[in-house]
Amino acid sequence: xxxxxxxxxxxxxxxxxxxxxxxxxxxxxxxxxxxxxxxxxxxxxxxxxxxxxxxxxxxxxxxxxxxxxxxxxxxxxxxxxxxxxxxxxxxxxxxxxxxxxxxxxxxxxxxxxxxxxxxxxxxxxxxxxxxxxxxxxxxxxxxxxxxxxxxxxxxxxxxxxxxxxxxxxxxxxxxxxxxxxxxxxxxxxxxxxxxxxxxxxxxxxxxxxxxxxxxxxxxxxxxxxxxxxxxxxxxxxxxxxxxxxxxxxxxxxxxxxxxxxxxxxxxxxxxxxxxxxxxxxxxxxxxxxxxxxxxxxxxxxxxxxxxxxxxxxxxxxxxxxxxxxxxxxxxxxxxxxxxxxxxxxxxxxxxxxxxxxxxx
Amino acid sequence: xxxxxxxxxxxxxxxxxxxxxxxxxxxxxxxxxxxxxxxxxxxxxxxxxxxxxxxxxxxxxxxxxxxxxxxxxxxxxxxxxxxxxxxxxxxxxxxxxxxxxxxxxxxxxxxxxxxxxxxxxxxxxxxxxxxxxxx
Lengths: 360, 135
Prior knowledge:
The structure holds 2 protein chains of 2 kinds.
Chain A: E1 5-9, E2 21-27, E3 30-37, H1 45-48, H2 57-62, H3 69-84, H4 90-118, H5 122-143, E4 152-153, E5 156-157, H6 163-189, H7 191-197, H8 205-210, H9 216-219, H10 250-273, E6 290-299, E7 302-311, E8 318-322, H11 324-327, H12 329-336, H13 344-350, H14 355-358
Chain B: E1 7-9, H1 15-24, E2 28-36, E3 40-49, E4 52-61, H2 77-88
Parallel strand pairs in B: 1-4
Antiparallel strand pairs in B: 2-3, 3-4
Domain NADH:ubiquinone oxidoreductase 30kDa subunit (chain B): 21-94
Organism (chain B): Thiorhodococcus mannitoliphagus
Protein name (chain B): NADH-quinone oxidoreductase subunit C
């Protein structure tokens, strides 16, 4: 007879903002096995693409997630543009890159706040979200939206941003980066943060690779893979390298995100310095996508894949999104095996689970 | 990027051996998905090495929609295969973690099979103060 106990974790749990469930098989306080189940709020958005106009679907794609909303819209539009052979004006490409990196910073800050809260650091949580709010204000001033930007469209972007506004944004970005650096050292050096995260939930580079880990989970295990290196948007013209940490534990995944925030500030500054002049959209009137393509982008949580198949009609044959959280489920199950029950929330948090993306 | 990474046709009989070869050569499993066609299912799979994706497509007849599991070769395949099972109704013998059709708790069973008709439901008025999740 087995001496193990099954403890349900989620779908409602203090560290989970969205529903995901784990059956934890425990031997005393040690996790023997974790069995995840998802799909509580599956929305079938991929199926909508088969019934709606491909132009309108850009709005739906952006609603896959409320945190990396812009990057979902960008990925969908880039895929369609590639199928139609449309070349987006350089200024639109650079503005898309800036909004994508602002999305990365605000997503990482949101995660840092949640993790600080889970570690018992309420003031650090508040500071992280206070700084995030400054970025959301910039998003609102440049796009008109705060959660859903609504600015990306097939053929470019809907709204140009004035050079004067961009100049002001550059100054404010420097202030926000300085504010972030004040709290970044707490995540890097604080003994309590280290006590809860160092050596916890270790994923080796080999396991991360074979289990298909993506994003900070993969790079925190020492694998220098970042899909932005494919050179989409303006990334091929900018000076940057993937952020990598070697230890593969919860602390390494946290530090990858802290360093990526700094890197994104730098990428935004490069884009602002090199901002091309000119139009921000090309007309796609009368054009329709035909063929199939798989397009990959780097979201804050990792690599996202869009598969688009079209036969020249106004609706797509198939639209598929493989989200980073879905790819990180198998590594999560591996990391949980053998850990202490008390460490489960921290390990789950360090994959930065996005159930909204997962339940597209 | 994408257009220069086409989907190569793969015979179902070569499904497992191709996965074994890619594992041995150090590839990473990127994704698996399906598309419902009138008389068959297309199963697409992508492997990645050094930022370069190698994509394959295999066909499953609707009356024998059965795909050998890759979860013994690439452990991460169990999530994609359970998804294929739940969304398309494809049988996956040899799955290391088999949820028996309960991985995705969708309201409509096998919604992506191509046999689903859209029904409009009456929208209930939202409760005061109710709000949705952001992300």
